[in-house]
Amino acid sequence: MTESKDPAPTDAARSCSVALAGSGGAGVMTAGTLLLDAAARAGLYGLMVRTSGPQIRGGEAAALLRLGPQPLATLDDRFDLLLAIDWQNLHRFADEIPLGPRSLLVGDSDEGEPPGALRASGARCLALPLKRSAKDSGGWVNMVALGLAGALAGVPVPALEAALREGWKRSADALAANLAALQQGVALAGAIDAPRPSPLPAAGAAPAASRWLLSGNEAAGCGALRGGVRFVAAYPITPATELLEWMAPALARVGGTLLQAEDELASVNMIIGASYGGVPSLTATAGPGLALMAEGIGLAVAAEVPIVVVDVMRGGPSTGIPAKSEQSDLSFAVDGLHGDAPRLVLAPTSIADCLDTTEWAVQLAEALQTPALVLSDQFMGQSRCVIDRPAAAGASPATRLSASAPPDGTPYRRYLDTASGISPMARPGTPGTVYTADGLEHTERGIPSSQAADHRRQLDKRLRKLLQHDYGPRWADVEGDAELALITFGSTTGAVREAVARCAAAGLPLRLVALRLLAPLRQDALQAALHGVREVLVVEQNHGGQLLRYLRGRADLPGRPRGLHRPGPLPLRPGELAAAFADWSAAVATTHAAPEVTA
C-alpha cells in the first residue's frame, strides 16, 4: 500500500486510534475496556480489538482502540498513539499496530528502547515515568496509562473517572489510589511538548441507556435469547468461550440451561436431543470444533431437527492461530457435510449485527426445522464496540410447525411431503405421534427405507423448504447503484464499507453487496442486486478466495468476477482497500477486463 494512492478518509470517518500494549498481567485489556466505556459516557463511539501472542493466555497483549463521533466497525489504517507499559515481545505486533511519522510512541523510561521494528516506522518516541508515577500514587500502572491515553485522545477526564468508579470491584482505598494514578497519567499528557494526536471533537454526553458496550460474542448470545434459545451445550474453545460464559447466567435468568459437554461431539448431540424435545437449542464453537460436529449436523439435517451452531472463526487449518481472525470456514460451512445436506448458513456483518443475525438464525431454524450455522469470527467475537441501543425485540420468537394428536386410526406422518417442504413436528409424548428420528433415510412416517423413491422425495423436501422460504430483504445489505460492485461478508464488511465511502468522496462510486444469508444463496435476489453491474470484485479474509469460488459455482455473476483476498491474522484496512479498489477501477476502464487484485 502506498499513501499517495489512498483516497483520503472522509470527515465522517474522523477518529483517533490508540494501542495499549504490555506483557501478561500488565492490565492493558482492563485499561482499554475502561477507555472504551469512558468514550461511550462522553457521547462517542468506539471499537476495541484484542490481540495476543500465540499462547492465548499470558505473554504479550495489546488493546487496539478506535474512537470517534460516529459508529465504527473497523480499525483505521494506522495508530495515532502506541502506549507500551513494557516492550516484552512487542515486536510481534509490529504488523498489527501500523505506525507512521505522525504517530506517537510512548514507553516507560525505565524499560529501555522500543523495538527496532517500531522505531523504523518513523513514529515520534517519548519516554515517560509510567511505573514511577504509579508507585507515587499508590495505584496501578495501567491506570496511569488510562489517564495518559484518554487525555491524549481527548476523552474528558470526568468520563474516565466515572468509568473507573463504575467498574471498580475492590476496596475504596484502592479505588482512591487508582483515581490518583489516573490523574498522574492526565498530568503526564499535559506536560508533553512534542506534537500529539489531534484530540477528538467534543461530543454531547449520551444518555446512559442510549448506548450499549458489548462484544460480538455477547451480542450473539443476546440474539440467541431473543430468538427463543433456552438450552445450550458446548465445549469451551477460543475464541467462542466468552459467548458461553455470557449465556450461562443469562439463560438461568430466563429459565434456560447451559451444560458444558465433554467434547464437541457430545455438545452437538445434546442440542439435537433438546431440540427434538421441543426446546430451541444452540452450541458455539470454532473451526476445529465445527469439524467434529459435522456428523451431528448431518443428523439434524436428515431428522429435520432445528439447531443453531455459532462458529466464531479463527485462523486455520487444524489448531491454526487460535486468537486471530480469519474467514476460512466458509467452504466447510456451505459444503462440508456428508451427502446432499442443505442447511442455513448466515454471517453477521458487524458486532451489532451479531445480535440481529443470531436471532434471525434461531427463528429460521425453528421455522424451517433445519440446522442454522452462524459464521462470526474472532474479530467480531472478542472485540468490544459502542453501539446505539438495539430496538426492543420485535415479533415473538418463531415457532416450529407443531403436530397435534391425529384422528383415531390415522398414522402420523412426521416427514409428510408438503408443498412447502415443512411437515408438522410432534413433541415427544403427544398421543399418536410416535416416530423414529435418526440419520437413516426414511418414509414419510419415519420408517427407515433404502428405496430410491423415498430417498428422492425426502431430498427434494429438505431442499425445497429452504429454497421456497421468503427471507425478505435481510439476505444482504445492498448499497449504491454503480457499475462496479463489491461483494463481501462478515467482519470484512466494515472495512469495505468505509473504503467505499472514501472512494465515493474521491469521485469513484462503487456498489456494495454485503451478504448475510450465504446458504441457500438467493440467486434471483443477487442477480437483481447486481443489475446493471459490469464487473464484480469479491473481498474476503482467507487464503483461497472461498467466497469467490462459492459464488462462481452457484451464481451467474456479471463480467469477469475477480477476488481480493488474503488470510489472517492481519485485518483488511480501509486505506489499502480504497487504494486497491481505485487500481481495479482504473484497470477495468483501461483494459475492459478486470485483473486479479491484491491487498
Radius of gyration: 26 Å
Question: Which residue ranges are poorly predicted, with pLDDT under 50 across at least 5 consecutive positions?
Answer: 1-6
Mean pLDDT: 93
Stated plainly, the CATH topology of the largest domain is called: Pyruvate-ferredoxin Oxidoreductase, domain 3
Helix content: 25-40%
CATH class of the largest domain reads Alpha Beta
User: What is the terminal-to-terminal distance?
Assistant: 8 Å
Describe the biggest sheet?
Answer: 8 strands, mixed
- Structural class category: alpha/beta
Strand order of the largest sheet: 6-5-4-1-3-2-14-7
Shape: globular
Number of strands: 20
Number of domains: 3
CATH architecture of the largest domain: 3-Layer(aba) Sandwich
The tally of helices reads 19
As a percent range, the share of strand residues is 15-25%
CATH superfamily of the largest domain: Pyruvate-ferredoxin oxidoreductase, PFOR, domain III
What is this structure, in a nutshell?
With 599 residues, the protein is an alpha/beta fold.
Commentary on this structure:
This protein has 599 residues and is an alpha/beta fold. It folds into three domains: 3-190, Pyruvate-ferredoxin Oxidoreductase, domain 3; 212-388, Thiamin diphosphate (ThDP)-binding fold, Pyr/PP domains (Rossmann fold); 472-591, 3-Layer(aba) Sandwich (Rossmann fold). It is built from 19 helices and 20 strands. The protein has helices spanning 28-41, 116-119, 130-137, 141-153, 157-167, 172-190, 216-227, 241-253, 264-276, 287-292, 294-303, 330-335, 351-368, 378-382, 452-467, 492-505, 523-529, 546-554, 574-591, and strands at 16-22, 45-52, 61-68, 81-84, 104-108, 124-128, 211-215, 231-234, 257-260, 281-285, 307-313, 344-346, 371-377, 384-388, 476-479, 484-489, 511-515, 517-519, 535-540, 562-565. An eight-stranded mixed beta sheet has the order 6-5-4-1-3-2-14-7. A seven-stranded mixed beta sheet has the order 9-8-10-11-13-12-18, with helices on both faces. It starts with 15 loop residues before the first strand and ends in an 8-residue tail after the last helix. The relative contact order is 0.10.
